[in-house]
Amino acid sequence: MNFKFSDQFSAAIEAKQVAAQQAEQAKYNADKAANDAQAAINTARGQAEAQRLIQTTVTAEVLQKQAIDKWDGKLPTYLGAYCL
Q1: In whole angstroms, what is the distance from residue 55 CA to residue 10 CA?
Q2: Whole-prediction pTM value?
Q3: DSSP character at residue 5
Q4: pLDDT tens digits, residue range 41-53?
């Protein structure tokens, strides 16, 4: 047996499926936007925490030790405004 639905009925079924797909796409887009926003918040919180830790742990002594560790043992030589 071969069934043939009316063109109107077939168009209504297709429209319903298209609407369902569009609703799913909209839900996906909303979820993605929410996840992206949460990721940006988490990144900002992480950066703020890192900055806070740096501010509480960096002292003049730490900076001096870092400068000494990086020093190559050569004193800079200057003559007026020019470096030799």
Answers
A1: 67
A2: 0.54
A3: -
A4: 999 999 999 999 9
